[in-house]
Amino acid sequence: MTDTSPPFAPGDLEAEAARQDNRRRWLLSLPALIIIVCAATGPLLVMVVYSFLAPGDYGNVKWEFSTDGWVGIFLQRDIFDDTLMWADAHLSIFWRSLSLSLITTVTTLIFGVPTAWFIATQPPGRREFWLFLITVPFWTNLLVRTIAIQELLRAEGVFNNILISIGVIDTPIQLMFTNFAIAFGMTYVYLPLMVLPVYAAVDKLDFRLVEAAHDLYAGRWTAFRRVILPLIKPGIIAGSILVFIPSLGAYVTPRVLGGGKNLMFGNLIELQFGAGRNWPLGAALSLMLMAAVMVSLIWYVRVTSREQADD
Amino acid sequence: MKYLLSAASALALLATGAAAQELNIYNWGNYTNPKLIEKFEAETGIKVTVTDFDSNDTALAKVKAGGHGFDIVVPTHTYVPIWINEGLLLESRPDQMENFKNMDPAWVDVKWDPGRRYTVPWQWGTTGVVVNTKYYDGDINTSAIFLDPPEELAGKINVVPEMSDVMSLAILYHGGEPCTGDKDVLKKVRDTLVEAKKSWLGMDYGNIEKFAKEDLWAGVNWNGSSFRMRLQNDNIAYGYPREGYPVWMDVVAVLKDAQNVDEAKAFQNFIMEPENAALISEFARYANGIAGSEEFMPEDMKNAPEIVIPEELRSVGVFNETCPPDVQSIYTRIWTDLQK
After folding, report:
1. Nearest chain B Cα distance for residue A258, angstroms
2. Is the pTM above the cut of 0.90?
3. HEC-encoded secondary structure of B254-284
4. How far is CA B75 from the centre of its chain?
5. Domain range for residue B206?
């Protein structure tokens, strides 16, 4: 009896092809993987390691294991009577950043949605022009734009001069270095990030559906609430996430417009790496901020995937 | 500010690759006279790049992290022992340089660098209070201007966010010594600062414009910066708190990992020449510690109240010290409480 079976089973050939294919795919994605590991995961791991070390005397870290960085976020000993208590300074600073982010998100929504609606309902040729105008501020550095806002807000600035000349007030009101200044600056800086995704959603909106709603005796408000809003909701959520996340770590705008009197979370982190000389606490605080961002992203994924499941 | 810093340092890094003679200086912002740099470049043919920092801690953290590409740094004297102990400075021996003879003998045997083996004076000054006298005409030689502010000034006060200066002023106000670990004094200091902050408008650097345009009326400030404010607005006056005020000196040192050591030493020698030291002062408006430089200074500096300390207040100036780490950590906590 001779063996008549071919040297390779057809299945083997397929497996070999699949293996090669697989190898090629890995090889091709290698540059991307290297970038992800070196530029994202690697530094993050350094942060995690540093957050578990002891602070060096003049900055940097001592290579001793310590959980003080993490405990220090929430608990601290009173400077004067040594009782253990909540680190209310850190918590109130975190709350300030959180509420500022929420306010920024809401104000950009209030101004962003009508703007996006306006652009999307223009004749197609003109839309591009308006979109172009929305992106113009990105041509200038953030710091330059923020300092320019100071010129609007100062005692002899544009706002006060206009208000005085039309007779609303007699003496300049304090605008610079106030919470209003911070909210104003943040709204201005992040508004494009809200307008663009909402525009994309309104652009795709099928206006026949709105007409159908009117035909079925829906008033303007009902048509907006029951037909338009559900359809542009993904754009609104995406815009809110895009605004909320960077505002949470915002550093330059609150510092320049708020006068640096009250710390934001970003400034608190900076303090630990600078004058505070407590790098482990700074690393732990940064990771905390990342966790907060992750939570809002997970919430976003959940909400949108539920939407898709409903469809 | 961070964006500017990183962009500038990226440029500085790129610059080190070229072959021509170069020097990279890392100094405080708005502090280096362009005329001084031009003169140095013209005399030596060395191309100079100046990069700004906004606080001692920023400078220290950045240089410690490495890869900065700087040759010269200009820290405040309180930080010099840290820079030396951390092994960041080169012993460039200014005491053996040609122009060392010009250094005012009073500044040679200083505690932070005895005999001047590392550092050369850049400028020295005081931290006091600044007041716009149009809005307040009372006594300004007191820290009460910002720690227990008069009603006229409340809500228009800015305190520079320089932790060691502000803590020293507040501790001296309560009769303590700078760098004290005395809990009784520190408790009073914290309570006073927290209470006083309610009448502050800001805690920010770079305020010459804002004071000149009267967005700010009073605050903690440095003498030279106050001088520059007065040149733009006559109503501005500088006060030396009689409870005590910090005296400091910013110094020029060569970094241990400098790429251009000879050029850096040449610069140290260059600024000990009275004519050149005068250029430094002409721009930033502080005294400089080089004997004979007064001759070359602008006329309006010779009797300026910001430069010439009144006789009766001379003795209450205190040289800041480098605080030990445990005391420093208490100060950071008070500072965080203040800004929470």
Report:
1. 7
2. no
3. EECCCCCHHHHHHHHHHCCCHHHHHHHHHHH
4. 8
5. 125-247+308-339
CA distance B227 to B330: 33
Give mean pLDDT, residues B48-72: 90
A3 vs B117 pLDDT, higher one: B117
Among A38, A54, A84, identify where a domain stops: A84
Per-residue pLDDT band at A311 (split at 50, 70, 90) = low
Which residues 111-150 on chain A approach chain B with CB closer than 8 angstroms? 141-143
- The tens digit of pLDDT for each residue in B45-59 reads 999 999 999 888 889
Do B208 and B257 have their domain in common?
no
Q: What is the CATH number of the domain that holds B91?
A: 3.40.190.10
Range of the domain at A38: 10-84
Same structural domain, B70 and B115 = yes
Flag if B202 and A263 touch (Cβ within 8 Å): no
Q: Give the tens place of pLDDT for each residue, B82-141.
A: 999 999 999 999 999 999 999 999 899 998 999 999 999 999 999 999 999 999 999 999
Closest among B16, B73, B19, B25 to B49, alpha carbons compared: B25
A152-161, A278-287, B1-10, range with greatest mean pLDDT: A278-287
Do A105 and A65 reside in the same domain of the chain? Answer: no
Specify whether B212 is located in the same domain as B325.
yes
Q: B106 with B146, same domain?
A: no
Last residue of a domain, one of A26, A49, A84: A84
Lowest pLDDT segment from A60-74, B10-24, B63-77, B103-117:
B10-24
How far, in Å, CA of B155 to CA of B202, rounded? 9
Q: Which among B3, B155, B186 has CB closest to A141?
A: B3
Domain count, chain A: 2
User: How many structural domains comprise chain B?
Assistant: 2
One DSSP character per residue, A105-157 reads: HHHHHHHHHHHHHHHHTS-HHHHHHHHHHHHGGGGS-HHHHHHHHHHHHSTTS
Q: Is the pLDDT of residue B308 over 70?
A: yes
- Confirm or reject contact between B198 and chain A (CB < 8 A): no
